[in-house]
């Protein structure tokens, strides 16, 4: 069930070890499910219990540690040898007496790493405070350091194989976005539109299917468009409602996100003005993208463009995306925002989503793009406009 | 948009403060999205950035702290006063220079709580090691203690209003399970079956719609039934495949999970024997449930029943469920397993899921039940058998 060749996984591991060496790290604990997948292929909905990879600089393979009943998923989905898959007993699960990190600490000790420099992803969702407290207690002679996003930064430049999966995801999101726009009408329940969106996201195309996206479809409508992360309700759309659709296609855990805004009926002049400003701004930003440009330069092009129309936006306008698991499809590395001097390179992929939210309404029009050799390539194929139903 | 009356939320807050007082806690930081929802109504897909409630024993209302663009979701979905909603600026998001917990520490300081006993949910998914490290650094005079599952334990006994939502979720899962079983056939792609399952989960019924479930549908087939948390692929079902369906209905974030197993074609005698053992075991366990029984007694009834057939199962056979967000619909409190002496009370709800996995095949047949005044009530209405297609 490996998605990539074993040599691609090993190449990723080599880069990880190089980064560890530069930072003086002997052991890296990888908890982020996307990073676990990136290095080994591991893919299962088991991140709701503690699991991680132990990457030891001096050992050839990472060690997978997880719950007993998930060891067979590791055997099926990874390139790891059987002896590199070490399950913990079920009485460690959500126990007040035993913690899985006690088990992990024992392995680190057995491998002779208890007095080394150990990095963990301190700010990753699934590396809890309790993990940190237990590990530092059980391994008092180790030096613990922050390894947040170490692997994420390696993920930022994609291989051609990864780009292929992201393009498949873009095909799915193109079809899904048109399906959602088609289904939204006055009198239709929000949940029924989202049901059709999910159906298209998961069934995908005749050639390839879709996976679950790391964020569910977000479709705020009416005054709720000012609150961008609300999910759907049982309510019916009403004439005059603006509706934001933010969703993604996903194929083999690789994402291509996309947002569009529509109005049921006649948009207000304010909405039209907002949409024109957003589209102009996106185009201005896309125009400056090429290898060598920095992330903050892309944001600046957007900001200068919308300022001409008298608009301001305070949050970042985009982020690196690709392989991921809930709750986020962002990679937590480069952001398109002031102060981010990351230099764009070919095969980086970003979701540029410069929403503008006013007090009682808002607009989101976005594109996911790949940096090419001399510019950028927009991945989905959905008209860039304010849709009117 | 409040789901329950303000007095129900305040009653939950009172119970939380009583539990805080018993444990000598002055300030509780609530990061678990289900606990945030439980106390305030807050409901948005914003848990991918740092957010929390600060519950101060001496203050009437909790304080919501989250990202600026999510403050309007807090205004729309909670009963909190505007001044209790404190957003942090966007340059705190995934920054290497600023951390949202610095912002939280300032609020705690301003509220005169910097030298008090502060509890946080140390082992909750979204309370990272970095949160802990920043808070303890910024508030050196506070005493930090573990508040994991403090609110979860209050959630374990449901109100009648909550039971009503869980029953609606059970109606959805009943219809969804039959839809999934109907669609699975040799030659059909797994992703197409899951697309129909999602559609039913989200569209719900004519009377009420469905929400996203905290775990996606899990449908391992063939030899993959030995790996219970694998998700679907683009592959086609084959004649002879066993297929496990583990899914839930969800209504306004309240879940009712359910699992069934089917075989495409003729089951092997081993599968039939396994199914008979599982069904007998579930029935034996359901028979002993009533207020006053302990969780471990329920597991013991199951274990004794399957032992008669020569089977053993090492993992827990169930857990408390209800309100939740990804990645888990379990509440992380009581488990049906040896050593858990939690006493069953009316309006507790459990998902009893005693899967048995052999080396190359497995079976899952489950029920979600409510403890009643004198026994239990099974919530979904799906035949308890090995389905044969």
UniProtKB/TrEMBL annotation, chains A, B:
According to the UniProt entry, where is the signal peptide? none
Q: Creatinase N-terminal domain: from which residue to which, for each copy? A: 12-157
Domain Peptidase M24: start-end pairs: 165-373
| One Pfam family named in its UniProt record | Creatinase_N
Q: What is this protein called?
A: Xaa-Pro dipeptidase
């Amino acid at each position: 069930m490996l998605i990539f060749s074993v040599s691609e996984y090993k190449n990723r591991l080599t880069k990880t070890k190089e980064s560890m060496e530069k930072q003086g790290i002997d052991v890296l604990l990888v908890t982020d499910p996307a990073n676990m997948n990136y290095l080994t292929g591991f893919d299962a909905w088991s991140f709701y219990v503690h699991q991680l990879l132990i990457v030891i600089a001096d050992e050839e393979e990472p060690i997978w540690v997880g719950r007993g009943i998930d060891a067979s998923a590791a055997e099926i989905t990874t390139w790891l040898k059987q002896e590199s898959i070490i399950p913990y007993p079920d009485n460690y699960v959500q126990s007040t007496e035993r913690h899985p990190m006690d088990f992990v600490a024992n392995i680190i000790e057995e491998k002779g790493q208890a007095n080394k420099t150990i990095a963990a992803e301190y700010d990753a969702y699934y590396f809890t405070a309790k993990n940190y407290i237990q590990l530092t207690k059980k391994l008092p002679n180790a030096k613990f350091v922050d390894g947040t996003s170490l692997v994420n930064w390696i993920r930022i430049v994609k291989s051609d194989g990864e780009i292929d999966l992201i393009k498949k995801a873009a095909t799915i999101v193109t079809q899904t976005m048109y399906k959602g726009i088609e289904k939204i009408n006055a009198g239709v329940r929000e949940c029924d539109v989202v049901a059709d969106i999910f159906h298209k996201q998961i069934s995908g195309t005749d050639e390839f299917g879709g996976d679950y996206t790391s964020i569910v479809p977000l479709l705020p409508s009416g005054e709720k468009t000012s609150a961008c992360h609300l999910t759907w309700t049982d309510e019916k759309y009403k004439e005059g409602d603006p509706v934001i659709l933010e969703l993604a296609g996903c194929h083999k855990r690789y994402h291509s996100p996309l947002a569009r805004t529509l109005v049921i009926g006649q948009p207000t002049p304010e909405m039209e003005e907002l949409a024109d400003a957003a589209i102009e701004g996106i185009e201005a930003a896309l125009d400056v993208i090429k290898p060598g440009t920095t992330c903050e330069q892309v944001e600046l092009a957007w900001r200068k463009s919308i300022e001409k129309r008298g608009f301001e936006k305070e949050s970042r306008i985009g982020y690196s995306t690709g392989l991921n698991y809930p709750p986020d499809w962002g990679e937590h590395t480069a952001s398109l925002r002031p102060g981010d001097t990351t230099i764009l390179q070919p095969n980086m992929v970003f979701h540029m989503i410069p929403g503008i939210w006013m007090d009682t309404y808002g607009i989101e029009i976005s594109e996911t793009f790949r940096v090419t050799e001399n510019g950028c390539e927009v991945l989905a194929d959905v008209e860039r406009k304010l849709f009117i139903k």
